[in-house]
Amino acid sequence: MLFLHEPSIPEFVYIHYPVCQHHCSYCDFNVRSRKSLAAEFSDSFTDKWLEAIEKHLQSLWRDSSKQSILRSLYLGGGTPSLLEPEQLRRLLDILSKFYDLSKLEEFSLEANPENLNLQKIQAYRDLKISRLSLGVQSWEPIELKRLERLATYSQMEKCIEDIRGYFENFNLDLMIGIPNQNIESLKRSLDKLLSYSPPHLSVYLLTIASEHIWFQSKTMKPLIPKDELAAEFYEIVSQRLGAASYEHYEVSNFAKSSYRSLHNSNYWNTRSSYLGLGPGAHSYFANPPTRCFNILDMKSWLESETGFAETEKLSEEQQAIEEMYLRLRTRKGLEFSDFDASLVGQLVDEGLLERQSSDTFSIAEQHWALLDAIAGRLLRGRLARK
Ligand code: SF4
User: Fold this and answer.
1) Ligand 1 pocket by C-beta < 6 Å: which residues?
2) Average of per-residue pLDDT values in the chain
3) pTM higher than 0.90 for the full model?
4) Of 64, 204, 221, 307, most Cβ neighbours within 10 A?
């Protein structure tokens, strides 16, 4: 069992709200529809979720005597914008029993346009949320339909305008690899999003499990963009955003100067400890390097003492592999000397890797979409050397 003691209390906290208005058929996040949770927990799931967060914090803080500083709070999901301001206030009251919230540098909340209105946006701002991340995904009717998005165009437009009025810092999500997407439709969506001058854009590649119904359908399967087309989409996005002065600071993330996400940058760069609360979230404790995975099942998570399902101490090899992935995600670069020279040479010749200096290499930016495949080849080569 793990209990937190100062100074090991993480200053970064992620909280997973596992509720969505509708469970999109392709989504493999640990979420449930509001309706199905209401059927199982008689409309009180969010109350129970809040109680469980408090219980888990209490059990983790058991031996700790004072509040720790919270630098970053990230509310993700699921759809945290389904939380009413009053519920969010209760969550902050709970956190304030364990954390000093006065030094919060970033407070992010993921939102969908259909659950936001001006009043809620104002209330969120008053609760000191500093960064809203809005799931837009596309501006094309057929693509939005495929993604089972619920917002209308007028809701999306009004929502972004309202956010711009109250938040200096906000992110818009764009998706690539949607069935039927083509270069022209991608450019139209990208231009529309850029017309709002968002300080930050996240661009995700839609990955669909091979057992999904789309892969079984004779009409749908051919519409799913192949890897080469997805890579082309990715290159278009990188070039267009680079030309618009966005820094491509992580494989899926682009920021105007000084708008990098502090919370996510901690995952990728500094790797201070972070605490994950909520079903299916995970935590990382830097000293000693340990990862804790939370229980996935809603009922079991609500009932458990700490929320943790498993705790894993990371071996040196595991740490090295994680470090390799993170370095590839951020183009920090890897040392040639850690890898088989002929394998790296081959990947450079194929144009997948590029030399950064005489000692280091990274993935060529236009091939970042192939990160998993390239990392897999490097990893197999590394393991074969041992
Ligand atoms: S709204 Fe987002 S998180 Fe929720 S089911 Fe759909 S894709 Fe998944």
Assistant:
1) 20, 23-24, 27, 29, 31, 77-79, 112
2) 91
3) yes
4) 307
